[in-house]
Amino acid sequence: MKKVEIHPDAVERIKKFTVTDNQLGFGKYVCPAMIVCAYDKGEWQKIELIPYGPLAIDPCAKVLHYGQEIFEGMKVFRHPDDSIHMFRPEMNARRFNVSAKRMAMPAIPEELFLEACDVISAYCKNAVPKRLGESLYLRPFMIATEVGMGIKPAKQFLFVIVASPSGSYFSGDSVKVYIEREDIRCAPGGVGFAKTGANYAASLNSYEKTLKLGCDQTMWLDAHEHKYIEEMSGMNFFAVMDGVLHTPKLTDTILDGVTRRSIMDIARGENIEVVESKLSIDDILKASEEGRCTEAFVCGTAAVIAPIASFLDKDGKTYRVKDPQGKIGMSLREKLVGMQAGREDAPKGWLHKVRNVDI
Ligand SMILES: *Cc1c(COP(=O)(O)O)cnc(C)c1O
Predict the structure, then answer these.
(1) What is the position in ligand 1's atom list of the atom closest to the CA of 91?
(2) Which residues of the chain fall short of a pLDDT of 70?
(3) Hey, which of 13, 61, 95, 172 has its CA 20 to 30 A from 212?
């Protein structure tokens, strides 16, 4: 295992870093240190903790032209005894490599990924906020740094982690979902299952429409029939119908969310029936009209769970969900947030304690 090189100037800056804002928001603050690790000549070089600052990128770096880029999003929590814990980071490490493979990028050994996350969390421990629902959000990413206009997979990359003390992504209000029936986010055989910037870039045009129509989230349907629910631009989807929790079955056009998996595990533990299947949007809208779809919600690391108030279709018709502060969704949210914060017992292996370092 390669040791992480800690730059003293990064530590000096961390020591002076405090955030007193009680409205942390999401991504508003970043820690003054970051992890960098270059990939060159077929191998990962040393991992370093350096002061946060601009990256020197050649204008001809391939990431700037061809979008060879992947990322992750994960959270680190402060428990009541002040110990610091990462939530299921090995899931992010594994998914990072799934994304890397699809984007013709080198895998990063899981233990190197985890070590880098542990180090930045350990050194930024004073920036891990205390209140329930708050966390240190880690954003690991990898970009193709090789210089050259030729369209071919790069051979040089940079792995980076930045850390942001964050509150909840959502205020807790329920969200309005716009059903996108024209644009598609991705297609079978594409990169939908990879956490890569391309998927987000493809979603932004619809996000503008979504906002203009007074909605908060874009719902994507399958590329072929425009009929089956896939997910939001950055979150997975659940609906409660007749007391059963439904979510679209994973395909290569859906991102395999850690929150989605955790919610299914918690729900099953509470004896809530969970069904993963093809979910047609028309069935959900009909069930909403009939009051059988009692709740629906979106989920992801940043927001955890946000309840859905309504769906807006392209003909301008709004379908309200019966219970916009759904009991099942809200109780699953409370359970998951409680586990992450060390206030409820979590399944074995879900929390990884971060080492203690003196800074
Ligand atoms: C990150 C992401 C999610 C949520 O995944 P989590 O692991 O729960 O954070 C869902 N959909 C897309 C497209 C994403 O990029």
Answers:
(1) 7
(2) 1-2, 169-172
(3) 172
